[in-house]
Specification:
The chain is globular. The chain is α/β, with parallel strands linked by helices. Strands 12-11-10-13-9-14-15-16-17-18-19 form an eleven-stranded mixed sheet, with helices on both faces. Strands 3-2-8-7-6-5 form a six-stranded mixed sheet. The longest helix has 17 residues, at 394-410. The protein has three domains: 3-124, Udp-n-acetylmuramoylalanyl-d-glutamate--2,6- Diaminopimelate Ligase, Chain: A, domain 1, CATH 3.40.1390.10; 128-366, 3-Layer(aba) Sandwich (UDP-N-acetylmuramoyl-L-alanine:D-glutamate ligase), CATH 3.40.1190.10; 376-533, Protein-Tyrosine Phosphatase, Chain A, CATH 3.90.190.20. α1 crosses α6 (187-199), α5 (143-156) crosses α12 and α14 packs across α15. It contains 17 helices and 27 strands. β17 (306-314) and β18 (317-323) form a beta hairpin.
């Protein structure tokens, strides 16, 4: 058991609680629709009130003895078909959207199982977000780097910060990699993380808050104090259907800043931090204004409250001079890439909104040397550069390629991109990513990312179509190799001195999800292994 696992286990409440407490909470939200006794007969919800609950969960594969099972209608599995499994696993009652008469399990019927799960989890873990200054960071790209910068800066400003993010989890002073492919976990996991933070002495929580987490009600019962928008570009249309629905899911984070019984006033003011350079900035600011939150904008736009006045890009990072409501300053970031200016200024804006020490914020930002799987260089002495990055959207892939292109050109080289697109996810972005890579690279190698249960070849074909629209030809400067290890090997074999090979889409992740589930994968380790196997350990490398 890892230290983090032990901390989470210790945070689990002991004993049992009467279901009556949760019934009242759900009834106050208009969620309760009825009830069924264990024999399947309709009954008054109050008849279930004396049941004693020892936990909350939605997955019958995990221990749920004595727990309340929540039947979630999923894309592949409907929890309503698992009530018999829940009973066998020891569940004492279930929350359902429709009665299951032959389940032999007491059932509380609710309007939305997902929304009820969020409330049940918050109830079971004692609403831990009410005890934390809770920061939600949302956006298509930049969430993870902004979260890492925020944790560092806030800790330099004497706050004790917990983190739930894509790359890592931080509780108290302990940090561990996040092994999951999910940035915003299901409500029970997230509420347990928050409870563990309070028990470990954290007073602040930074939560990467995705559109999935918002749309699927995972964060419904979290009392946010700050919302940060990085940007909104094309992503996750497989869930949301339209770009507008995707944007609106992110907007809902800012709506949640409104003070009320579900989001009480705390020591930290309710604030909205908005990227003024994003086309949707005005809409986010308007929603924040309706929520009565203080709005602080940031970016390169001179009209932003916090804005860059001079940017100096260099090999080892970026220097930024900026102005802010309480005075200007200079940031010396150890992160490369102009896009990191926005990530850092978002944290400066948060410091302004909460009246934190500006010098401490600057020192904290300057202390961050890198984020795992974000513009991470692999150096083994090879005569070409290798960069591992998590870029998995059209916008982020374009940003990464545009960042490294001048470096390659200065050394007489070009770009090679190795990437794919996740299965059972946004279809529209696939040709767009192929086109973006095709316009920028001398060689594109299309490969698996996380095909899941979708036909892997069809994914590659969709991406290849975009690359071909940019003029690339199969077998010449466009390769389709589903096996990711072989795809990287092929890219390395074709790389010339001075080239930069960008391995995009996996970043820090430790698995590839295929039709049979996750398979172990570490992009950085695989890259090093292949360089060694190919004998590419002599040469200048790329600094």
């Amino acid at each position: 058991m890892t230290s983090l696992e032990a901390t989470l286990e210790a945070a689990e409440p002991t004993g049992r609680r009467p279901l009556a407490q949760l019934v009242r909470r759900l009834a106050a939200l208009g969620q309760v629709r009825g009830a069924r006794a264990a024999d399947g007969r309709a009954t008054d919800p109050g008849a279930l009130s004396e049941l004693q609950i020892g936990g909350v969960g939605q997955d019958t594969r995990r221990p749920i003895r004595g727990s309340l099972f929540v039947a979630i209608p999923g894309a592949h599995v409907d929890g309503h078909d698992r009530l018999a499994d829940a009973l066998a696993a020891g569940a004492v009652a279930a929350l359902v959207e429709r009665p299951v008469p032959d389940a032999h399990l007491p059932q509380l019927v609710v309007g939305s199982a997902r929304a009820a799960l969020a409330e049940a989890a918050a109830w079971w873990y004692d609403d831990p977000s009410h005890q934390l200054a809770t920061i939600g960071i949302t956006g298509t790209d930049g969430k993870t780097t902004t979260a890492s910068l925020a944790v560092a800066a806030l800790e330099f400003a004497a706050l004790s910060v917990g983190l739930s993010g894509t790359v890592e989890i931080k509780i108290g002073g302990d940090r561990e990699p996040n092994p999951a492919h999910v940035t915003t976990p299901e409500a029970p996991e997230l509420q347990r993380l928050l409870r563990a933070m309070t028990r470990a002495g954290n007073d602040t929580a930074v939560l990467e808050t995705t559109s999935h987490g918002l749309a699927l009600h995972r964060v419904d019962a979290i009392a946010y104090d700050a919302a940060i928008l990085t940007n909104v570009t094309h992503e996750h249309l497989e869930l949301h259907g339209t770009w507008e629905a995707y944007r609106d899911a992110k907007l809902s984070l800012f709506e949640r800043l409104a003070t009320g019984p579900r989001n009480p006033a705390k020591d930290r003011a309710k604030v909205a931090i908005v990227n003024a350079d994003d086309p949707s900035a005005g809409l986010f600011a308007g929603v924040a204004q309706e929520a009565a939150a203080r709005i602080v904008t940031y970016g390169t736009d001179p009209g932003a409250d916090v804005h860059a006045t001079h940017i100096e890009e260099r090999a080892g990072g970026v220097g930024v001079e900026y102005t802010a409501p309480r005075g200007g300053g200079r940031l010396d970031l150890l992160l490369v890439g102009r896009f990191n200016v926005h990530n850092a200024l978002a944290v400066v804006a948060l410091g302004e909104a909460w009246q934190l020490d500006p010098e401490a914020i600057r020192e904290g930002l300057a202390s961050v040397t890198g984020v795992a799987g974000r513009m991470e260089r692999i150096e083994a002495g090879q005569p070409f550069g290798v960069v591992v990055d998590y870029a998995h959207s059209p916008a982020s892939l374009g940003l990464v390629l545009d960042l490294v292109a001048p470096v390659a050109a200065a050394r007489g080289g070009g770009l090679i991109a190795v990437f794919g697109s996740a299965g059972e996810r946004d279809l529209d972005k696939r040709p767009a990513m192929g086109r973006i890579a095709g316009e920028r690279c001398r060689l594109v190698v299309v490969t698996d990312e996380d095909p899941r249960g979708e036909d892997r070849e069809s994914i590659l074909e969709a991406i290849a179509g975009g690359a071909e629209s940019a003029g690339l030809r199969r077998g010449r400067d466009l390769l389709l190799i589903a096996d990711r290890r072989q795809a990287i090997r092929s890219a390395f074999e074709r790389a010339r001195p001075g080239d930069i090979v960008v391995l995009a889409g996996k970043g820090h992740e430790q698995s590839i999800i295929g039709p049979d589930g996750p398979q172990s994968w570490d992009e950085r380790a695989v890259a090093r292994e292949l360089l060694a196997e190919l004998g590419l350990g002599s040469g200048a490398g790329v600094g």
